[in-house]
């Protein structure tokens, strides 16, 4: 009786903001767990899907680490090397693999390594040269030639907010499993658009472009089309918006599909460009509307590597004397500890936010009442439970402020509701988020938009001090984007 085929799975994810004021260290990964079995408890995670489908197909499955860190600055070099080498050691200990499936972000940078995913995939390819290798990615990835050359198939989520990781994991498994069985021969084509940007997919031209991918993917021979939005705040030579397509043994079909989608992005570039009002204009408009009005503090989104403690928006709200406002969440463990020790009902003086660096603004000295305390505030983040740690609800002059011990963007209304803040009763709700809040907050908002705030995710790309990325892309300095096929040989 022949031995079953071997499937090896692992996950190592973080998104690197080159302009963030702090590094990503060991504790950032430990905070979420460095686990060899954690993914199995969440049936919607890519690793759990890979395992379930692999076992159903008769694979003997080996699982290495599953870990991620909240987006931040570059990962400390020795931390990245240690995590990468855990995966490689586990692969060697498994005596190789016939198929390797990974969950990676695609925009992870470490000290001394701008392309962590390309490094990981190339090292895995060297260990198992005959294996089928695939990875599911975040759409905010830097798709590099090294990544594409080392893998048989790379597929990024299509949606932003990212609600389709499970679907993309199943798609990746199907293509890789068929490739392992000799039924497919995926041929890639990678096309540069000459653009950089941020492209939410819930509405507008990006919605139409993403919906149009389905029609392209059913064309003869075409297997998959990925739009890599890129991550504008990661300064690499490969930063930017790219399209990756695979076709079954047909380079021309892959190139045609990728080029068509790239051109559609270029054609829609003006409409895709973010044009958000600033804080002052947003507060002026919100004052004329019936609530709840939900506003996103775009530049202080921890999900993009921001500190989550900027004070610009709250300072403006206080300066106008506005009340019936709720804001979440400030990452300030010291304030949480002080308020927790004081207890519910206490009136205390705090110094809130403004601690991480210049992009956070100045701290705010506030007199607050402690309204609620919890040892563990949770939210569902892309169908996965996520703990914000010990957290408190503070009230200052009619403004309800959520302060948490763990740094993360806002995904769910539970951040407010579980503390007792009823959003339906609030005129104005402010969330430190770019787009991931939309799925949960849009249904409860009478009006909602994103605000071009100061901070670590500055939307004026002309102000970003790119060093590794040449400044010849749209919308920098009025450049005109042109589609270009990237040589993968």
Quickly list its features.
single chain, 489 residues, alpha/beta, Rossmann fold, 2 domains, eight-stranded mixed sheet, five-stranded parallel sheet, 14 helices
How would you describe this structure to a colleague?
The protein is α/β, with parallel strands linked by helices. It has two domains: 267 residues, Rossmann fold (3-Layer(aba) Sandwich); 180 residues, no CATH class. The chain has 14 helices and 19 strands. An eight-stranded mixed β-sheet has the order 11-12-15-16-10-17-9-18. The chain has a five-stranded parallel β-sheet with strand order 2-1-3-4-5, with helices on both faces. Strands 7-8-6-19 form a four-stranded antiparallel β-sheet. α4 links the parallel β3 and β4. The mean pLDDT is 95.
Short description:
The protein starts with 5 loop residues before the first strand and ends with a strand.
Beta content comes to 15-25%
List the domain count as a whole number: 2
Largest sheet: 8 strands, mixed
CATH class (first level) name of the largest domain? Alpha Beta
In the sheet with the most strands, the strands line up as: 11-12-15-16-10-17-9-18
Kindly state the number of beta strands: 19
Overall pLDDT metric: 95
- Going by CATH, the homologous superfamily of the largest domain would be Response regulator
Low-confidence blocks of residues: none
What is the end-to-end distance?
A: 40 Å
């Amino acid at each position: 009786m022949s031995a079953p085929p071997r499937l090896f799975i692992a996950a190592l994810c973080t998104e690197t903001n080159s302009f963030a004021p702090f590094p990503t260290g060991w504790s950032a990964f430990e905070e979420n767990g460095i686990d060899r079995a954690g993914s199995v408890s969440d049936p919607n995670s890519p690793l759990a899907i890979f395992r379930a489908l692999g076992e159903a197909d008769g694979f003997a499955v080996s699982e290495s680490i599953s870990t991620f860190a909240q987006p931040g600055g570059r990962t400390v070099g020795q931390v990245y090397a240690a995590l990468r080498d855990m995966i490689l050691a586990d692969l060697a200990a498994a005596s190789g693999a016939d198929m390797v499936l990974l969950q990676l972000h695609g925009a992870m940078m470490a000290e001394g390594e701008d392309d962590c995913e390309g490094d990981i995939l190339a090292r895995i390819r060297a260990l198992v040269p005959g294996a089928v290798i695939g990875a599911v990615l975040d759409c905010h990835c830097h798709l590099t030639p090294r990544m594409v050359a080392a893998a048989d198939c790379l597929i990024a989520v299509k949606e932003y907010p990212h609600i389709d990781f499970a679907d993309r994991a199943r798609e990746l498994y199907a293509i890789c499993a068929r490739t392992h069985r000799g039924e497919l021969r995926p041929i890639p084509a990678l096309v540069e658009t000459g653009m950089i940007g941020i492209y939410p997919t819930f509405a507008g031209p990006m919605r139409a472009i993403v919906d149009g991918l389905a029609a392209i993917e059913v064309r003869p021979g075409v297997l998959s089309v990925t739009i890599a939005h890129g991550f504008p705040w990661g300064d690499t030579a490969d930063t930017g918006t790219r399209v990756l397509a695979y076709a079954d043994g047909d380079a021309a079909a892959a190139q045609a599909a990728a080029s068509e989608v790239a051109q559609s992005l270029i054609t829609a570039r003006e409409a895709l460009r973010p044009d958000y009002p600033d804080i002052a204009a947003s507060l002026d408009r919100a004052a004329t509307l019936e609530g709840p009005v939900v506003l996103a503090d775009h530049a202080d989104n921890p999900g993009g590597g921001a500190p989550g403690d900027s004070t610009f928006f709250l300072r403006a709200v206080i300066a106008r004397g506005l009340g019936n406002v709720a804001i979440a969440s400030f990452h300030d463990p010291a304030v949480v500890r002080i308020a927790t020790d004081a207890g519910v009902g206490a009136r205390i003086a705090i110094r809130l936010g403004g601690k991480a660096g210049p992009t956070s603004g100045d701290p705010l000295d506030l007199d607050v009442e402690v309204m609620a305390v919890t040892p563990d505030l949770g939210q569902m983040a892309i169908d996965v439970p996520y703990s914000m740690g010990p957290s408190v609800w503070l009230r200052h002059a009619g403004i309800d402020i959520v302060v948490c011990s763990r740094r993360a963007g806002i995904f769910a209304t539970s951040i407010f509701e579980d503390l007792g803040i009823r959003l339906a009763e609030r005129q104005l709700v402010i969330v430190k988020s770019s787009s991931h809040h939309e799925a949960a907050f849009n249904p409860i908002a009478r009006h909602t938009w994103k605000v071009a705030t100061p901070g670590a995710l500055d939307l004026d790309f002309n102000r970003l001090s790119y060093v590794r990325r040449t400044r010849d892309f749209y919308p920098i300095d009025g450049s005109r984007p042109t589609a270009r096929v990237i040589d993968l040989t």
